[in-house]
């Protein structure tokens, strides 16, 4: 690993350029701008959230003790977007037996992604603009020549794939989850309903070329137990990228944040908390001179390592194990504490991590290349790979 550099640029006539206007970038921009630094965001699309389609996501509340709302406030973010707590969910294993899981505090906060006015993306954009951040739209950066740059361009390869629909419905607000390798290979399917809108998706960790088949099976399975009307369905899809051994301060004054840095939750793909935190840490590093790599090593990597161990364990449960785990979970008064324990570093998780590390390979090949026609941040060659194209061609 390169020697860490000091990013204390306060006092100089500094302008920070941020590539990409995703959640990680907006958090970095907001914190820098509030500290009086001039910030310019370069976004390749004409608006934020274009990678998404009004689909619901969750800011999870189990990987750390800090409640997600407190966490958002601690990184300088106010709630000007849909952010509804969910404390109960109905889950099904392969046997299709119903398990109700309750938590004393929210299991997650439901947020919306995309261009709708109440989405997380629009909320963060507004906070950035209000803080004085300049955003340049339709500005796809291929090579950055700016001196101080933060790169928050999102995932660079598909280690996990999502395929789903958003739709209108008259169903009550609800959360449903499905564990079954026939409908979500080593992953899960979920249905989230909020105020007449719904998101249904399947998440795959392998077998990407059969995404559409898994999705159809998942939809039929869900409809066999949930009586829900589906009006005006719209497709959406996406992917996630998990990388452990990335040097996030990989060039002088160039910091990688969010999924561009490979910050993801290997277990279930809940990468938002890492993305938001990394944006905050990057801003903090520029403002205080503290090492960004060091802060990531202390605050993000231990959780990612445990999440990789958890992924290995989860992938080995198989269909028989899913029902058993759901049965145990549904008997607990509050699953939150048990889930949190699963994210605590321990000797056992450390051992499993060593094993899981041996078998895990991100599909990203070259993590530092800045040239075209490769796996780099700028050209996203991986997106063009035949496996990926096939998976998202519907
Ligand atoms: C379907 C799906 C469901 C998910 N569900 C959840 C969930 O429930 N909970 C959770 O915590 N996480 C979830 N995630 C993961 C979460 O969405 C990501 O971790 C998060 O969006 C990462 O944020 P980011 O800021 O790093 O990148 P992004 O949100 O991807 O933003 C990157 C931005 O950079 C822009 N950009 C890219 N390249 C360039 C360039 N060269 N020049 C200029 N701009 C560029 C893009 O247009 C985009 O606006 C999900 C992901 C998917 C795909």
Q: Which terms would index this structure?
A:
single chain, 394 residues, alpha/beta, five-stranded parallel beta sheet, disordered N terminus, disordered C terminus, binds flavin-adenine dinucleotide
Instruction: Characterize the largest beta sheet: strand count, sense, and whether it forms a barrel.
Output: 7 strands, mixed
CATH superfamily: FAD/NAD(P)-binding domain
Which structural class fits the helix and strand makeup? alpha/beta
Query: Cα distance, first to last residue?
Result: 42 Å
Q: What is the string of SSEs from the N terminus onward? A: EHEEHEEEEHEEEEEEHEEHHHHHHH
Helical element count? 11
Q: Please indicate the percent range of residues in DSSP E strands (runs of 2 or more).
A: 15-25%
Number of E-type strands: 15
The domain count comes to 1
Q: What are the low-pLDDT stretches, counting only 5+ consecutive residues below 50?
A: 1-8, 365-394
Q: What does it look like?
A:
A hairpin with a 2-residue loop joins β12 (188-194) and β13 (197-204). The protein is built from eleven helices and 15 strands. It has one domain: FAD/NAD(P)-binding domain (3-Layer(bba) Sandwich). α1 packs parallel to α3 (120-130). Strands 6-5-11-12-13-10-14 form a seven-stranded mixed beta sheet, sandwiched between helices. With 394 residues, the chain is of the alpha/beta class.
């Amino acid at each position: 690993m390169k020697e860490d550099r000091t990013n204390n640029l306060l006092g100089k006539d500094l302008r920070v350029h941020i590539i990409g206007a995703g959640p990680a970038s907006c958090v970095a921009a907001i914190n820098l701008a509030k500290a009086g630094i001039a910030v310019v965001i370069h976004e390749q699309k004409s608006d934020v959230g274009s990678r998404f389609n009004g689909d619901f996501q969750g800011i999870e509340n189990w990987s750390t003790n800090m409640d997600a709302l407190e966490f958002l406030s601690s990184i300088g973010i106010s709630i000007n977007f849909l952010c509804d707590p969910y404390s109960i969910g109905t889950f099904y294993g392969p046997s299709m037996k119903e398990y109700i899981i309750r938590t004393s505090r929210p299991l997650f906060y439901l947020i919306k992604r995309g261009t709708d006015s109440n989405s997380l993306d629009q909320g963060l954009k507004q906070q950035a603009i209000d803080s004085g951040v300049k955003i340049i739209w339709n500005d796809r950066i291929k090579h950055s020549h700016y001196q101080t740059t933060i790169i928050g361009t999102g995932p660079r390869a598909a280690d996990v794939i999502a395929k789903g629909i958003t739709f209108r419905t008259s169903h009550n607000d609800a959360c449903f989850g499905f564990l079954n390798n026939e409908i979500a290979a080593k992953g899960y399917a979920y249905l989230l309903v909020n105020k007449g809108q719904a998101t249904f998706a399947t998440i795959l960790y392998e077998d990407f070329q059969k995404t559409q088949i898994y999705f159809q099976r998942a939809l039929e399975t869900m409809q066999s137990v949930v009586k829900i009307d589906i009006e005006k369905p719209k497709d959406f899809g996406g992917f996630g990228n998990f990388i452990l051994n990335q040097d996030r301060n990989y060039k002088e004054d160039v910091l990688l944040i969010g999924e561009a840095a490979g910050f993801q939750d290997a277990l279930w793909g809940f990468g938002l908390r890492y993305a938001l935190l990394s944006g905050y840490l990057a801003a903090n590093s520029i403002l205080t001179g503290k090492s960004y790599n060091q802060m990531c090593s202390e605050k993000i990597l231990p959780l990612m390592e445990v999440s990789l161990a958890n992924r290995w364990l989860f992938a080995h449960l198989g269909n028989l194990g899913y029902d058993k785990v759901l049965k145990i979970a549904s008997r607990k008064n509050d699953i939150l504490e048990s889930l949190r324990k699963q994210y605590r570093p321990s000797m056992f998780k450390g051992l499993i991590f060593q094993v899981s590390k041996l078998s895990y390979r991100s599909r990203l090949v070259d993590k530092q290349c800045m040239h075209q026609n490769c796996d780099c941040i700028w050209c996203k060659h991986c997106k063009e790979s035949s496996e990926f194209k096939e998976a998202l061609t519907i």
